[in-house]
Design a protein that fits this description.
alpha/beta, three-stranded antiparallel beta sheet, 11 helices, 8 strands, binds cytidine-5'-monophosphate, Multifunctional fusion protein
């Protein structure tokens, strides 16, 4: 348990993934993208034709998934599902299955298994509250809904995917509502989390802030 952990929680499209990756790179730490686990579970449940409101049925497929994590890519069996996982539609599936306590329980140990030396940066919704309550540094990352929708829009356009900024914003606000209002591990800052609003910060400035906090903690 003396393997250091930095948690980064926050709403959809707040930049958690990028901040986690860059912070981990700077420190040589491993990364846990916990959202990817909920996404792959939602995708597999949908493909299996399961009722996504049936938490026990969805949880039951988790141990059967042949998940692989290589070079930042996620594999389901032999299939590289990384691109599919990033789709907005998969994010919505993820937030539907994530409300169920049995699903969260089924993913619990798998998430803890990412903790290894020399340290871990874990990003998600409940990393600092439920998974790693004893983390050395907890960051709660926010940005305005307008900023987040704009960033997501740019990201999609740069990949050649057309998107409507108004509907993107509606989708991410709907997902945030579901994540905040569920009873199982709702999205909320841990009591000892440091708040970072990156609406007006560059990625570099956000990373520098987290690394400064990390230095102060040591
Ligand atoms: O972070 P990301 O957008 O990939 O997460 C997708 C969805 O998975 C979230 O909207 C949330 O419902 C769920 N999730 C969660 N707990 C986590 C990470 C993600 O409930 N630790």
């Amino acid at each position: 348990e003396d393997i250091p952990v930095i948690t980064i929680d926050g709403p959809t499209a707040s930049g958690k993934g990028t901040l986690a990756d860059e912070t981990a790179k700077a420190l040589g730490f491993a990364v846990l993208d916990s959202g990817a686990l909920y996404r792959v579970t939602g995708l597999a449940a949908r493909r299996a034709g399961l009722n996504l409101d049936d938490g026990h049925a969805v949880a039951a497929i988790v141990p059967t998934l042949k998940l692989g994590f290589r070079d930042g890519h996620v594999f389901l069996g032999e299939e590289d599902v990384s691109a599919r996982l990033r789709a907005e539609a998969t994010g919505l599936l993820a937030s539907q299955v994530a409300v169920h306590p049995p699903v969260r329980q089924a993913l619990h140990d798998l998430q803890l298994s990412f903790r290894r030396l020399p340290g871990l940066v874990a990003d998600g919704r409940d990393m600092g509250t439920a998974l790693f309550p004893g983390a050395d540094l907890k960051v709660f990352l926010t940005a305005s809904a307008a900023t987040r929708a704009e960033r997501r829009h740019k990201q999609l356009i740069s990949k050649g995917i057309s998107a409507n900024i108004t509907s993107l914003r509606e989708d991410l606000e709907a997902r945030d509502e579901r994540d905040k209002n569920r009873s199982a591990s709702p999205l909320e800052p841990a009591q000892d989390a440091l708040l970072l609003d990156n609406s007006d910060l560059s990625i570099e400035e956000s990373v520098t802030q987290v690394l400064d906090w990390w230095q102060q903690r040591r």
